[in-house]
Specification:
The complex is a heterodimer of chains A (395) and B (222).
Chain A: H1 2-10, H2 12-49, E1 54-59, H3 81-88, E2 93-108, E3 111-120, H4 123-127, E4 132-135, E5 149-152, H5 154-161, E6 170-173, E7 176-184, E8 198-202, H6 203-210, E9 217-222, H7 228-242, E10 249-253, H8 254-297, H9 299-307, H10 312-348, H11 358-385, H12 388-393
Parallel strand pairs in A: 3-8, 5-7
Antiparallel strand pairs in A: 1-9, 1-10, 2-3, 2-6, 2-9, 4-7, 5-8, 6-7
Chain B: E1 2-13, E2 16-28, E3 33-37, H1 44-51, E4 59-64, E5 67-68, H2 74-84, E6 85-88, H3 100-110, H4 115-128, H5 144-156, E7 162-166, H6 174-189, E8 193-197, H7 201-204, E9 209-214, E10 217-221
Parallel strand pairs in B: 3-8, 3-9, 6-7, 7-8
Antiparallel strand pairs in B: 1-2, 1-4, 4-5, 9-10
Helix pairs in contact in B: 3-4, 3-5, 5-6
The chains are: A alpha+beta (395), B alpha/beta (222).
Bound molecules: adenosine-5'-diphosphate (ADP) and magnesium ion.
Chain lengths: 395, 222
């Protein structure tokens, strides 16, 4: 060990290069996988912000789900508020939010703009986990009553009112006037619809605004203990009963969408990590080369050690120890740089959560140590096989 | 007690057999001071390597203290070298990146002596070879004579029965060469068997027994 340390000390530059190679490999693995991993948690986090245990019911049968193609000339039945209420009576479903979406000119105090209008019920707050900056959300009442109230998204509020008071003021939406009863807290841009730039009204109000009774979709929140398949069967049964036996809806499970994204991004992360891992193998070859050079440069030293009675095994151990020591230093500094890099990344882009995957740390460190051992073995064996007389006569 | 019986060493060179040593018979008793002399290429180093168990003979038998060591496995021969023999070379063969003290320490490390004991023995050796203020110097910071003294300290740190020296003064000037010879002779007087290869008659003549080699054969032994 004394000799191994000494060798590294004296062959500074060469050892430094090796250490650098391993270090870059390890830190690349750590950095890239943690980048992939934090992108993954970011995306799945955004999705779950849309609502957990959420099921979306759409009118019409989606052919890609493998159902029977619609019979010629058949058009899907519309989803209605009563369909949504019927679903809400199921034990498995904890909250419903019928959804209508359209756009209408919205004005307040002389300012006018075309804005997306959402018609829904109080269930929307539960399903989408909505937070209010001030006031209240739609109150639980008969969804058939078109109350003249609305809830404003934060972006829209800022545009229309600026610093002025908005709560309790009147907003003109299309040909109707609604009192502002609440303002949503800014949610930041998230996947899907941007609720910040919208106005929410009771579903009956929206029906009158757009002169239509068909829903865009129904959002459902299901109990955590419910089996997805059972829930889906129950939803289909309820709608089928109301649609004269026609199975004409499409059901999307939010969780399965998240799971798919999660899977794709995990595969990507592992892939990127493996590519970075290749640089570790390159570092291993570098170690081997450097060790081979080291063996030939130190031939007379090896000869001397053999002459004064070092067994071949000890010489082998010496060179292996040197290779392992080099890759150990490389690994540790690589881990350090990798972690620092991940922290820096988190500082620069706070939206990306700090997530260095444990498996990547273990794999990188393991691979680095293993390459050190494997690629150090050949030079070590070669050194141990040197003939002491021949080795000594070279100087 | 070293005894070589009909030791031959042949080298294969370009399809030709080259006899570096031919039927060498040699008995060396404990405490002897013996010089091996002869012209360049006569086989002096080859003979010393045989005695040192660094090389295996093509034929013949080597008895060490009555035990046949000719066919022993490498590691066993390494152990014998470590425990019974000390080496001094023409080119010192110090490890350049270790300090003088560390170089002297190597045989102790190889034998697994613990570090406290190692430091004590090294300090004692440095003192007796007049190297006490050179312990942290690396070989390139030492003069040739100092290097050879470090090498002798290393060769004797295990208290071997036999000291083998191949041209120990070959790389030194006359005066320092003389000092090194004095040192080796002093060790011999303390009971160590000293076997020294040299092509310098002035040094070789000092030995109590002088072996001359010509063309791989012993031409005189007195
Ligand atoms: N490894 C070797 N391969 C081939 N020939 C060798 C080898 N080592 C020594 N010889 C030959 O053996 C002879 C004796 O060499 P050596 O013992 O080194 O002579 P010296 O008396 O100068 O020390 C020389 O002719 C030399 O060329
Ligand atoms: Mg010679």
């Amino acid at each position: 060990m004394l000799l191994a340390f000494g060798a590294i000390r004296s062959h500074g530059l060469r050892s430094l290069l090796t250490v650098l190679g391993v270090c870059i490999g390890v830190s690349a693995v750590i950095l890239l996988t943690s980048l992939g991993n934090s992108a993954r948690s970011y995306v799945t986090g955004e999705f779950s912000e849309l609502g957990t245990n959420m099921i979306i019911v759409l009118p019409g049968r989606n052919e890609t789900t493998g159902g029977i193609p619609p019979i010629m000339g058949e058009t899907p039945r519309d989803l209605t508020v009563d369909d949504a209420l019927a679903l809400g009576r199921s034990r498995r479903i904890t909250a419903i939010a019928p959804l209508m979406i359209g756009s209408a000119p919205v004005s307040a105090g002389g300012l006018e703009r075309e804005v997306n209008v959402i018609g829904t019920t109080e269930g929307m707050q539960t399903v989408r986990h909505l937070q209010l900056a001030s006031g209240n959300f739609l109150s639980p009442s008969d969804p058939h009553i078109a109350a003249p109230v609305c809830v404003l998204g934060e972006t829209l509020r800022k545009e229309l009112f600026g610093t002025a008071k908005s709560l309790g003021e009147w907003l003109r939406i299309g040909d109707r006037r609604c009192r502002i009863i609440g303002v949503l807290a800014a949610s930041g841009v998230s996947i899907g619809t941007d609720l910040d730039d919208m106005v929410i009204v009771p579903v009956a109000t929206a029906q009158m605004l757009f002169n239509s009774s068909s829903l865009f979709r129904i959002l459902l929140q299901v109990g955590t203990h419910s089996m997805p398949d059972d829930t889906e069967r129950e939803i289909r049964r309820i709608i089928q009963d109301r649609h004269e036996g026609e199975d004409d809806i499409t059901i999307i499970h939010q969780d399965s969408v998240v799971a798919t994204f999660d899977e794709i991004l995990l595969v990507l992360t592992v892939g990127i990590g493996s590519i970075a891992g290749i640089s570790l193998a390159v570092a291993g070859i570098l170690i081997m080369n450097i060790m081979l050079v080291s063996v030939s440069q130190r031939t007379s030293e090896i000869g001397l050690l053999r002459a004064i009675g070092a067994p071949a095994g000890q010489i082998r151990k010496l060179f292996l120890a040197e290779a392992v020591l080099l890759s150990l230093i490389g690994t540790l500094s690589g881990l350090l740089i990798g972690f620092l890099g991940a922290v820096l990344m988190h500082r620069l882009y706070p939206v990306l959560p700090l997530a260095v995957p444990t498996w990547a740390v273990l794999a990188a460190a393991g691979t680095a140590m293993l390459t050190g051992l494997v690629f150090g073995a050949l030079p070590a064996i070669r050194a141990a096989r040197l003939n002491p007389v021949a080795a000594l006569s070279r100087r | 007690m070293i005894s070589l019986r009909k030791i031959s060493r042949h080298y294969q060179q370009g399809g030709q057999q080259l006899a570096a040593l031919q039927d060498i018979d040699l008995e060396i008793g404990p405490g002897e001071y013996i010089s091996i002399m002869g012209p360049s290429g006569s086989g002096k180093s080859t003979l010393l390597n045989q005695i040192a168990l660094l090389d295996r003979p093509t034929s013949g038998t080597y008895l060490l203290h009555g035990r046949d060591v000719t066919g022993l496995p490498d590691d066993e021969q390494a152990r014998i070298r470590r425990e019974n023999m000390g080496f001094v070379f023409q080119f010192f063969h110090l490890i350049p990146r270790l300090s003088a003290a560390e170089n002297i320490e190597i045989p102790l490390v190889l034998s697994g002596v613990d570090s406290v004991l190692r430091k004590q023995q090294v300090a004692k050796a440095m003192l007796s070879f007049g190297l006490q203020d050179r312990s942290t110097h690396r070989p390139d910071q030492l003069s040739g004579g100092e290097c050879q003294r470090v090498a002798i300290a290393r060769a004797t740190i295990m208290h071997p029965g036999t000291l083998l020296a191949d041209e120990p003064t070959g790389n030194l000037d006359q005066a320092t060469g003389k000092q090194v010879i004095d040192l080796l002779e002093q060790l011999n007087r303390q009971g160590v068997t000293l076997i020294m290869v040299t092509h310098d008659p002035a040094i070789g003549e000092r030995a109590s027994r002088r072996v001359k080699i010509v063309d791989g054969r012993i031409s005189s032994d007195a």
